[in-house]
Amino acid sequence: MISNQEIVLALGSNQAVDNAGSAEVLSMALAELEARGIAVVRRSQMYATPCFPAGAGPDYVNAAAVVRTDLAPADLLAVLHEVEAGLGRQRIARWAARTVDLDLIAYGQQVLPDRAGYLAWHELPPERQAQEAPAQLILPHPRMHERAFVLVPMRDVAPDWHHPVLGHSVRQMCEALPEAAVKEVRAL
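The structure corresponding to this sequence follows.
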C-alpha cells in the first residue's frame, strides 16, 4: 500500500550525463523513481540556482517533488542513492559537483532519529557542517529552512507542509529567507 504521507524530495544537478543537461538529468531521475514503483505525485518547475557552497562547481538546476511509496524512510533513501549511482553520481567529497543529488527532505511529519538527534544536527555550527555528515538519516532535512534552492521549488509542490519541529510552513520558511537568496533561484 502506498503511504498517504507527504514525502518531499529535493533534486539537483550541475553536471551532464552523456549528452543530457542538468534539467534532463533530473527528469531522468524522476522517471527512474517511477520505474521503481515510487509514485511522483507533484513536481516543481526547474530552477537555475547558484552553486552551494560558492565555488564548489558549476551552478545547479534544482527542483522538488512530492512522492508516494510504501518504503520506510531509510529504504527510500537507499533507492535514492541507487538512482544517483545509476546516473553517475560519485560521492567523493562533501558538497562537490554532482550529476544528480536526490535528497529526502521530509517524510510526512516524521522526525528522525528523534527530536534530540534532529536538534543536534539542526544546531550544528556552519564550520562543522562542512566537515561532518550524519551516519543516520535525519528528518526533516536539518538545513532545509536555510536554503532557497530547496524551499523555492518545494513551495511549488508543498507550500502548506509544516515543519514538525520548527512549526512553520514551507511558505513561511521561504518568506523568512533573505530576499536576495530567493531572487537567486530563477525559473528555467
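The mean pLDDT is 89.
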